[in-house]
C-alpha cells in the first residue's frame, strides 16, 4: 500500500503516460519540416533531367501526347508522357528510340 492506495491501481493509472508521450514524439517526428517521409508533389524539369529516357516527340498538348503514347504502346514500345518545362514530351528508353521515331514518322 502506498499512502493508503492499492499499488496495482496506482501504477495502472500511470500506464497511459508513456503511450501519450510516444504519440507526442511520433507526431512531432512525422510533422517536422524538411524531414517528411511523404513524397513532395512533382515539379517539371528540363528534357535532360529524366535519367536515361530519351525524348522522341513534342506534342502540342497533353491530349495529343496521350494519343501518341497510346500508339507507341500499341506496337509494344514502352513510352512515358511527361510535362517538362518546355511542354509535354514523350520519352522512351534509348534502345527503343529508333523504333519509336520510325513508328512516329509513319503518321
Folded structure, characterized:
- The protein is of the alpha+beta class.
- It contains four helices and three strands; from the N terminus they run H-H-E-H-E-E-H.
- It has a three-stranded antiparallel beta sheet.
Describe this protein with a few key phrases.
single chain, 107 residues, alpha+beta, VC0802-like, 2 domains, three-stranded antiparallel sheet, 4 helices, 3 strands, rod-shaped
In the CATH hierarchy, the architecture of the largest domain is 2-Layer Sandwich
CATH fold node name of the largest domain:
VC0802-like
- Looking across the biggest beta sheet, what order are the strands in? 1-3-2
Report the average pLDDT across residues.
86
Figure out the total of helices: 4
Helix percent reads: 40-55%
Give a quick precis of the structure.
With 107 residues, the protein is an alpha+beta fold.
Amino acid at each position: 500500500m502506498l499512502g493508503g492506495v492499492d499499488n496495482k491501481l496506482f501504477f495502472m493509472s500511470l500506464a497511459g503516460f508513456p503511450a501519450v508521450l510516444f504519440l507526442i514524439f511520433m507526431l512531432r517526428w512525422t510533422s517536422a519540416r524538411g524531414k517528411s517521409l511523404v513524397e513532395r508533389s512533382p515539379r517539371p524539369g528540363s528534357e535532360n533531367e529524366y535519367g536515361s529516357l530519351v525524348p522522341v516527340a513534342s506534342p502540342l498538348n497533353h491530349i495529343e501526347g496521350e494519343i501518341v503514347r497510346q500508339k507507341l504502346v500499341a506496337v509494344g514500345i514502352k513510352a512515358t508522357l511527361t510535362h517538362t518545362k518546355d511542354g509535354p514530351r514523350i520519352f522512351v528508353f534509348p534502345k527503343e528510340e529508333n523504333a519509336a521515331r520510325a513508328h512516329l514518322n509513319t503518321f
